[in-house]
């Protein structure tokens, strides 16, 4: 089964152009295909949300440095790459220390468990037991 192309679904959701024979065929498929119907429904909701959005719905204005960088990138001017700022992240260090501690605890617990089982098996053997070596 050939599903409706996503770009065609977008055009149907936008509803900007008069319906064509291809649109009619696509709508017929959508009527019988849950996947395409769901995709069209989702795209239609996005289009409606975008059309009803107001300035207050938009996020805050980005800082000036963002616009400067966009302008610089679009202008094609070669610039030196920015050096990443190396700031220690205490949360990352704490998480790494916690993971290291948890790993060490797990290894120690596994070692102790094996040692305890070996001692219990040795104690369970009697001197006259043929399994004892």
TrEMBL record:
Keyword Transcription set for record: yes
Keyword line: Transcription, Transcription regulation
InterPro entries per the UniProt record, alphabetical: Anti_sigma_zinc_sf
Name this polypeptide is given: Zinc-finger domain-containing protein
């Amino acid at each position: 089964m050939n599903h409706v192309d996503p770009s065609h679904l977008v055009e149907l959701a936008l509803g900007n152009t008069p319906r064509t024979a291809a649109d009619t065929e696509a709508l017929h498929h959508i009527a019988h295909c849950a996947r395409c119907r769901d995709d069209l429904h989702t795209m239609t909701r996005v289009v409606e949300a975008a059309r009803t959005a107001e300035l207050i719905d938009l996020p805050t204005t980005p800082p000036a440095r963002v616009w400067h960088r966009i302008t610089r990138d679009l202008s094609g001017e070669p610039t030196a790459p920015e050096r990443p700022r190396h700031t220690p992240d205490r949360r990352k260090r704490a998480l790494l220390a916690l993971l290291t501690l948890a790993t060490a605890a797990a290894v120690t617990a596994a070692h102790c468990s094996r040692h305890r089982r070996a001692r219990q098996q040795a104690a369970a053997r009697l001197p006259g037991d043929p399994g004892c070596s």
